[in-house]
Every structure is written in C-alpha cells, then in structure tokens.
Write a structure and sequence with these properties.
The complex is a heterodimer of chains A (353) and B (222). Chain A has 353 residues and is mainly beta. Chain A has a domain of 243 residues. Chain A contains two helices and 17 strands. In chain A, strands 5, 6, 7, 8, 9, 10, 11, 12 and 13 form a nine-stranded antiparallel beta sheet that branches. With 222 residues, chain B is α+β, with helices and mostly antiparallel strands. Helices cover 16% and strands 35% of the residues of chain B. An eight-stranded mixed beta barrel of chain B has the order 3-4-5-6-11-12-10-9. The longest helix of chain B has 28 residues. Chain B is elongated. The N and C termini of chain B lie far apart (87 Å). The chains are: A mainly beta (353), B alpha+beta (222). At the A-B interface, strand 1, strand 3, strand 4, strand 5 and helix 1 of A face helix 1, strand 1, strand 2, strand 7 and helix 2 of B.
Amino acid sequence: MSRFVTTLVVCGAVLVAAAPGVALGQEPPDAVDENSGPVAFANVASMRIDGDGQSGAGGSVITETQRSPLLPGTSTLAQTRSALPATDGEREAAGPNYLLGFGADSEVPEGVSPREHAVTATLRDTTVPTATAEATFALNDLSSDTPVVAVEGARSTVECATPDAPRAETTAERLLLLDENGELSPVEPPSGDEPVTRTGLRFGAPIEVEGADPGKTVSDVVLSKVSSFDQLVRQDQWRDGDVTTAAGWQVEIVSHVKDAEGADLREVTTRFVLGGVSCSLPAGFEAVTPGGGEQEPARPQVPVKIPAGVQAAPSSSAEPLGWALVGGGVVLGAAALLLVTRRRQAGSAADDA
Amino acid sequence: MTVRRRGVLAAVLGVLAVAAVAAGVVVLTGGDEPVAAPPPVSTTAAPPPLTSTSVSPVELRPQSSAAPAPRVAPQQPGTVRLAEGGTATLVRKEVTPDGTLPIPDGLDEATWWGAELGAPQGVALLSGHVNWDGRTGPFDELWRSRAGQDVTVVDVGGDRWVYRVTDVVTLHKNDLPAHAERLFDQGGEHRLVLVTCGGDYVGGTDGYEDNRIVVAELVTRP
C-alpha cells in the first residue's frame, strides 16, 4: 500500500564541490560538499507505526525536514506546518486516531500555552552546522478525546563545531503525561538515558482495529530523549557523516488492543520523534575563520545573466566588404588630395606666368 | 585638365572617399546585426509578482508511507515543444561563477537549469538563442507568447509534461539580477520558466539588451 515519495529540494541548484574539510585560515569555500560536507538537519515531528505482522499495520509520516544550506545560511520550517498528520495522505499513513499539534493555533490541554515553532538548520559562516527545534507539542487521541502527552517549551539543539566535541541537548519547560485517572499530570523530565514510563493508560491505537473494544484496550507510554542518529525517523536524504550527533524527544506508545472479552487482538507500537535534529561532520573537519582572507563576491545561486541572443559567426561574411570599402575610401581620399595638390601647383604656376 | 576641372574632380573623390570609409566602418561594426531580429519591445519596470510559498532554501519533502495516489517522480527534461511548434533538445547547464547561464551554440539545443519536471519545488529554467548566425531560433516565438498557451516538455523517458503560460515578462538585462532570485527561485513553487533575448541589439557580450521571460505552471503530468 505504500510508496515513498521523496525529493530533495536544493536552492540554487549550484552545488559546487568543496573539500569536505576546510582548513583553518583558508578563505571560506563557495559551498560545502553536498554528500560529505558538514550538514545539519531539523525536523519538527515524525512518527512510525510498527504492527505485529498483521496486515494493515505499519506506516510512517515525516514532516518537512530542514537541511542546512551548502553556503552559509539557515533553512527554516514554515509556520503553515502545525500538525501531524496534516493531509489525507498523512492521515492514511498515520491512522485516524492520533493528532499531534505543534503550532501557534494548535489545540493544547488547559494550562499549556501554544506557541509558534522555530525549526532551523544552519550552516554558519565558519561552516559549522547547527540545528534547533523549539515547539510546544500536544498529542491527543481523537477516538477517546483523550490528551496523551504534552511537551511545553520543548527544545532540542545540536552543534558540530569540531569532530571531537559535537554538542547535543534536549530540554523542556514542562512535561505532562496522561495518568491512570485519565488526566494530564506533570512528570519530572527524564534524567540521563532513563525514560519516563506510564502503563495501562485508557486510550487505544492510532489505527482502527476490527473487533477492538475501547473499554478494554490500554496503552503504555514511554517518554525519553533521543540519544543516537538511528533513533530519528528520517527521510532517505537525511544523512549522517563520519561524526554525527542527534537530539530530540521520543514518545513511544505500545497499544494493547483487546476485544470485548478482554482477549488480545494485537499490539501496535507507535513512535513519535519530536524536534529531531542532527548534525554531521567529515573526519578532519576544521571550521573556517570568517574574514580570514580576502572575501570573494558572493557567487550567484541563480542565473543573473542569460545571453540567449544572437551569436555572430567567428568570421563574418561582411568583414571583407567592410575592409574593402575602408581601403577604397583611403585610396579615393589620397587621389583627391593629390588632385588638390596639383591644382594648387598649377594655380601657382599660372599666377607666376 | 584645367585647374577648375581638377578641383571639381578632387571634391567628388573626397566625398566618395568619406562615403566609402563610413560605409566600411558601418559594415565592420554592424555586421553582427541579425537578419531577423525580434521587434523592439518596451521594457517593463518590474515583472508581475509571482507566487512564492517558501523561503526555505533547503527542505526535504514530507514523506508518508501510505501515499494514496502513485505519481510519476520528477524527471529530467529531454526536449521542449513551444506553442507554435518550435522545438529544441535540452542540455543541462550550470551557472558560472559570475552568474551567467551558458546557452549551447546553435538553435537545435537549449539550456535546462534548476528543478526537474514536476519537482515539488523550484523553477525549471529553459533558455535558447533567439537567433543564431542569421537564422531565427525556436525560442523567438517567446516574443509572441501569451497566457494560456501550452508548452510541452518530453522527459528523458519519453513522457509528456504540459505547462500552461501564466506570465510573460520583458526585462532589461541590467534589471535581471534584481529579479533573478524571485524569477528562478529554487525554494518556491514549481514552475517552468523560458527565457530568450530580444529588444534593441547592442552587440558585445550582451547581444540584445532585453530578456524575454515566459512563466508557465504544470497542468498535466504523466
């Protein structure tokens, strides 16, 4: 049922290969290498559903991922993306029951303030890649009208300044999780790699399961921090490098779907990555020093001169005629001068006579 | 020969000499003038606004594993057929460091730069000579283009992509850099943009002083 549609969009289309590592003190490169140079990625939200082998399970949705430009600059996610799923295609992949909001107008639980997200991937003037994702997330189970989790003021950031010290950080102002009373209640953020877990919560799977009894179905929620690149849910073009670090929040939901008699029908695992970011460097990378050398003018990224006009043949057929006319003119002029000179001489002789 | 007759003959030869030299200079300096130059055109101060939906220079498209309708992935263009039937084979070119888009010599080939056919974002730019060595080229018909006309591009796999003209703009070449980012935006809405030259002939590396720019939107994909 699935078909992946993935396209990498590159501004300018002028991809000038540069040495993967740029030595200190050299002039800034025109562009870093697209395939092996320093790069950062930032994604506001993605999700994957893993079934238990039964048909109809499985699917993923990955929102627009920002990639750092090949020249110094920043790529920023538009505010128009504020939910997952957001389209019919995404709803078909994600199922009809879950809705993750992360925009200024998103529906959030009482007491939580929605805000605009800030999702950026940057290549600094030094060619150091960085990425940051800031947002407030609210996940709701629409089938039971249940708020499942809210992450207020989530912030994940990575910076790859040197190969030996890439930096990653995942924080949040406040975490709220569904509790056994069906209410959102605050939880302490995970410490280190230790996740926060709540089990037996009254809500179901993101997809419809035939014969499921919502009254019997329960789900477990595990909230943790992303600690490796492989934990990210990524497009194919979202690459790593010789040195890579990643950050973000991960919400894993295991739904135990049961029928009216309480018998297990199936188990559905849904994994969200919120604010997934990464940055990568080639081995031996060294940041450049801005202004360390004479700056060249910025290279145009789109055509600014299109000489689609006439192009004369290398040797114009009119050229010999032109030179013949000039030469003839010179000869005629010389003859005229000669006649004038003789006329004056003749005139002088007549006067003398 | 009398003195008077010599004077008259010298004057005639002088006039002829001046005329011959002047004609020679005109021929030598004006010999590149095309046989069939496009008509002079008025230059618009600014092109009409084009829709641009994104300022992000680099973005990976959203991806879902349950896309409902299969679609042909973006393709590299192979040939273009303009509304009046002019055709050219498309050759991939990249922008030089000074921002110049190279155009293949002759009239059979035209440049393709930028996005692929049907790309989710970005302009696919096609540009061909308006004429070459005294012959009029297929892109000359851009000077007669109007909104609503169809431009067909056949990709390298033989499939047809139809774009419909939405905007026609004439820009003085000096004004192109100021509008190039918007006209040829690789982060905005996907469009087909066709470009040739025309207007007054000024010679040198510019040739003509204007660019004719035709913008089209995708209406039919394979």
